[in-house]
Amino acid sequence: MGLGARIAPLIPDPRDAPGASARLFATGHLAVLTTGHWAVPELRAAVAAGRLRVGFVALPHRGGAAPATALFVSAYAVRARTSRRKGAVELVATLSDSLAGAVRGAAGVELPAQPAAAQALAAADTLGWEAAFLRAAAHGRPGWGARVGPWPEVEAQLQDMMDRIVLLHADAGRAARATARDLDRLLGATR
Q: Can you give the residue ranges of every domain in the chain?
């Protein structure tokens, strides 16, 4: 059994792939899981129950290249012609302040956007997870979905490449080169 088989085992039915990685990780059959802060509440519960030992690190980057972390932002919106507009705006203001960010951060839902709340959360976290996310966020940039017009098509191509490599055991170099050619055609047509 090669190293790849121990890190990314074959998923018998490719239709099960979307949730399979998290299940394989949770049961100890997958060593590494690429995820985001949204996984913290569930993983924290598994650690507290003694089912897992988990640590977070930033995604690796090539030597000599600057690290980069894709940041995903959410926001509140109030329709211009909504009833009780003033109340809706006040609710958004309340949900956007540092106390609300600290509460959501303590629940593990997010790393607060307010620097003081994020630093306080990291300082109080005995697992060190929040500090890892905070260090990664220091190298933040918008995700490709915010910068690449035909992102759904690009994402589908990348997912297809990963499925071919992980599920069907295609040669990684060949699959990456084929996907790069397809993406060059796709992105070249949008310029």
A: 34-142, 148-191
